Amino acid sequence: MGRQTPERKNTIEVYDQPLTGEAGIDFDVIEGFFFAYRDFISDPDAILEKSGFGRAHHRVVHFVNREPGMTVADLLDTLKITKQSLARVLKQLVDSGYIRQVAGPEDRRQRKLYPTRAGRELALALAEPQQQRIARAFDGMTAEDRKAVKRFLIGMQNTRDE
Amino acid sequence: MGRQTPERKNTIEVYDQPLTGEAGIDFDVIEGFFFAYRDFISDPDAILEKSGFGRAHHRVVHFVNREPGMTVADLLDTLKITKQSLARVLKQLVDSGYIRQVAGPEDRRQRKLYPTRAGRELALALAEPQQQRIARAFDGMTAEDRKAVKRFLIGMQNTRDE
DNA sequence: AAAAATATGTCAACAATGCTGACATATTTT
DNA sequence: AAAATATGTCAGCATTGTTGACATATTTTT
């Protein structure tokens, strides 16, 4: 590994050598993940702006479409945010007619969440440019490679329970 | 593709069928990316909390370590944020002794950025748990697979220039 | 039936990190 | 000398996260 001796610039020691992968760190993955994710969410961001919504709304619309009938508690557990934080965006989505809340048939304290037609269309519209991006990234990759990518994404996540 | 007929719940039509990959969308990648990224940044978040810093500080410390001597303009271009937004976190990092600013030797209007010893150590400490996570995700993967992941991360990014 | 627990909602305040607009200073280029 | 550039700073605002406290409806437990 490199020496990386600190240099003195104006009487204070600083490092003028780049921090590289020599330290055993996959900086290309760390940075690739940052840039990729940033660009990945910029697509739906542009669409959401027109409706006056943000990323938080996107997540709610997405998961409610993925699992219609999920409860508020389910959603909080998925998003890992507080109910007060969710309440703001959820209220706006309900008021705007993208999501409906229905009292649970067994437990009537629950509020089961469903997308309206507009809600489903919004979810699809938001997913579309993201899918385009994924398709482009997958272009020219073997089925094996794509599997590796999906395995990677799962492997990067926290293990359930704990 | 599925019928996905809207149901009526309390006189308003809603969808009670999950939105699945039938629509030609890789939801496993979309969601995998979301969960993976969230968990990925939670590791350094925990470390930063002790110093009273946030994610924005992390990014600055990271890139200044990766490219010591970069100017403020370089950093703004990399992060794609406004100078006012950068100013807040950069000032705190300079005041706390993690980063030093040196007037450019050719163009003295520039402020070249360098990490101090503490700044380099912080960058390494923040990268460490992320590297652990990457290593775990890569565990059991072939060199071919890992290459695919890196290609994917690049493919997901916006093309330069434009 | 009464008490406790649960699911959800709401009010209020605050923090981090983006943004825009305006203006100041030092330095370099024209 | 004037214009352009690199940076800094002040002020205000938006989004989205947080805590804490308390209210309501409903279900479960005692």
UniProtKB/TrEMBL annotation, chains A, B:
<keyword id="KW-0804">Transcription</keyword>
<dbReference type="InterPro" id="IPR036390">
    <property type="entry name" value="WH_DNA-bd_sf"/>
</dbReference>
<keyword id="KW-0238">DNA-binding</keyword>
<dbReference type="Pfam" id="PF12802">
    <property type="entry name" value="MarR_2"/>
</dbReference>
<dbReference type="GO" id="GO:0003700">
    <property type="term" value="F:DNA-binding transcription factor activity"/>
</dbReference>
<dbReference type="GO" id="GO:0006950">
    <property type="term" value="P:response to stress"/>
</dbReference>
<dbReference type="InterPro" id="IPR039422">
    <property type="entry name" value="MarR/SlyA-like"/>
</dbReference>
<dbReference type="InterPro" id="IPR036388">
    <property type="entry name" value="WH-like_DNA-bd_sf"/>
</dbReference>
<dbReference type="GO" id="GO:0003677">
    <property type="term" value="F:DNA binding"/>
</dbReference>
<dbReference type="InterPro" id="IPR023187">
    <property type="entry name" value="Tscrpt_reg_MarR-type_CS"/>
</dbReference>
<dbReference type="InterPro" id="IPR000835">
    <property type="entry name" value="HTH_MarR-typ"/>
</dbReference>
<keyword id="KW-0805">Transcription regulation</keyword>
<feature type="domain" description="HTH marR-type">
    <location>
        <begin position="26"/>
        <end position="158"/>
    </location>
</feature>
<protein>
    <submittedName>
        <fullName>DNA-binding MarR family transcriptional regulator</fullName>
    </submittedName>
</protein>
